Write the structure tokens for this entry.
Amino acid sequence: MNIRWIKPMSRGRHRGMSTSQLRAEAERLENHCARLTCRLVAETSANQELMLHLDRAGIDYSGALEDKKTAEQEVARLQAALTATQAALANANKIYDLPQHTDTMPLDVTELRQRFTAGPVVTLPFSPLAVTDPGQIPVFARPGETAQDGPRPASRTTV
């Protein structure tokens, strides 16, 4: 703070300021101090408001970090489920290659030989269900008839 030194009126009285000049300077300094005090109060209030905003921003930031962590866990869970679903779908849609029989692979025909050696082979003309005349179809093989309906007349040729 600059204190103005005013030249005294005369050199003989004293070298400092007069009482009226000292009072004026004191009043000026008091006004300056009051302005600085008001400015300090305003800056303190602004600082408190900024600190409040900073606290809110910190809370919002920590909440956003928690949300991000939760979202990352959800993404990891969904990716695992997607991988499992894709694997199941790929397995369901997989086309399996059947082994190809070639001339070098022998066929097992022992079951067929056992069937033919067990008894007489029934050929198609001698099979009880192999008839060429539709009138001779057994009752149980006719569509829409039962055994109680009786035999069909021989003149009827439609099935």
Q: What stands out?
A: Residues 5 and 17 are 7 Å apart (CA to CA). The chain has a mean pLDDT of 77.
